[in-house]
Amino acid sequence: xxxxxxxxxxxxxxxxxxxxxxxxxxxxxxxxxxxxxxxxxxxxxxxxxxxxxxxxxxxxxxxxxxxxxxxxxxxxxxxxxxxxxxxxxxxxxxxxxxxxxxxxxxxxxxxxxxxxxxxxxxxxxxxx
Length: 128
Description:
By secondary structure, the chain is mostly beta strands. It is built from one helix and six strands.
């Protein structure tokens, strides 16, 4: 079977002049990075995003009353004193610092994207 040649990117008009055709596929032009003071709009207002995240956390722990802060991606590590090295524990995902209406009143929650178990650490204030 003879090898077939790829179609030409030029065509010839009736008067014999060759003209260039635009490529069949074009990539969208990127607008570039956002200015430092402008956050990207992901289709949700900050209030809607907060309410949604609080609803997700309350499904797992109904005693959570508010979110102090949140981080889009964290990894949980453990320091092994025998090997003197940091080791990943297998928890990666969004992290939320929260307040609860039960004791202990504070904590952080990592919604794990690497497995089925989430990482939960409850905290209390230490007084001296």
